[in-house]
């Protein structure tokens, strides 16, 4: 279904001029000609045609491809950029104005992407400028590798590979070369680069309706940067498959788009099309480098990853590969003040980047995992049943937890908890020393520490470390009776309650819970009533302590405390959050769902209690 996309704009008709105004306010080295709205030209603030003693480099085209082209204006790159309306070639008068503003005695090179409108308008402006006495050379860039030959008179489209031509020509001009030599380097660069794009969505023009041409689960290969149709529509594939296909297309010997035989050196550009997160671009870059090296026998000297030539809010990417030698690398590495050119890329890359080893703790430790007992004791069996039930419940609750957390947090509570639960189940099957409750607590903490990120992972890690330390100290000292009187005021996890619930171990477990909660409260700052997981587990611990002290059967006490945990979790709907991201959420939204962390804790606590209850083994 088509719909009008939301945009942070004032008027669709003024987006380009307002963009330019914001750009020059942001970067002191940029300025624009006072010719709005007809003339939209961004130029270096330090350049005037009357005094400029280098070859001027001018490019441009329709807007909507930001940061191209205006973001690449700066010393060592473009001298000026001519901005058309959205996806519309700039008019001849604007191009002429730009030429007149920055072109000195050494002349001007126009770098033009291969689109009919750009060729015609820049071409007419060039002829007019020549008639006025300016020295003008033009280089047409057509780096598209998506459409099969023959392509008629239109030829290959100009895409993100044009940015490489900008940089090489700009560096050549900055070095003081003549117009002819600068143009020669730009032409050579244009012949050595190939690009292909893949779109996951079409773009939305300001003030217009979003097209639904590209349906769910589909991608378009070779979609143009103006939203024009590509070579083919296909089912969405993993990024590894996409990258391999794109590189195969660019380097195809059959089509011979770019003559780059095995054994040559290349640079790589992974370009976002406007709505692609940097994370996804980096994933693509990480796949592209070894594919070029191993599958195509090419040495990758530089990698440029980011959004350089976009298509408004299009989701997707393009990949550009350019054959290079030392002279081209020198141009690419040359300094520039252009704000959109990536920093930190220059310099030789090692053939293969070997990760730096992770620093290890100075405390000696064994690298061997403990062994799961071949035969479980009664206590070990109860521990296994309870852990399995608790972890399985967390995994089953994943989607609900994510849904709740999507309203009051960042939407990943279920995913994070599920990662930890999956790791716990793996340890349970393979190596937890289940006949030793204390060491099992230690291993559960280690499992969670390896996979659970975010605040939740840290909380559980702190809890298990403190719980294990208390259990270990108590076990070593064999002192527990007085600790049975400790106030069982808070509780965070039940993973070892069911193993220590049989007297006299229940008292030791109570002390461990108290120590664990003290550590979590100390570092996390939460307590009862803060709308956190503690609001489920503190009531549970209170009921459990009361029932044990009253002499109830430990299993019955455990089940009753699980009911208290669930009641506590549900009560978080009526609480104002005082910890975590929920503190930024309105009371109305908070009242619509319980705290996800509290519900997770109550759910696995109850699952463990019921599993122990249903176990046929008597305590």
Notes on the protein architecture:
With 619 residues, the chain is an alpha/beta fold. The protein has 19 helices and 14 strands. The chain has a six-stranded mixed sheet with strand order 2-3-5-4-6-7, sandwiched between helices.
Which consecutive residue ranges, at least 5 long each, have pLDDT under 50? 479-505
Biggest beta-sheet profile:
6 strands, mixed
> Percentage of helical residues?
40-55%
What gyration radius follows from the Cα positions, in whole Å?
Answer: 33 Å
Q: Count of DSSP E strands?
A: 14
Structural class: alpha/beta
Spatial ordering of strands, largest sheet: 2-3-5-4-6-7
- What is the terminal-to-terminal distance? 61 Å
Molecular shape: elongated
Topology:
Layout: E1 3-4, H1 15-26, E2 30-32, E3 41-44, E4 56-63, E5 80-86, H2 92-102, E6 108-113, H3 116-131, E7 136-141, H4 162-174, H5 179-191, E8 193-199, E9 209-210, E10 218-221, E11 232-235, H6 239-250, E12 265-272, H7 278-295, E13 299-306, E14 316-324, H8 326-333, H9 378-396, H10 398-408, H11 413-430, H12 437-451, H13 454-477, H14 497-500, H15 505-524, H16 534-549, H17 554-570, H18 587-590, H19 596-614
Parallel strand pairs: 4-5, 4-6, 6-7, 12-13
Antiparallel strand pairs: 1-9, 2-3, 3-5, 8-10, 8-14, 10-11, 12-14
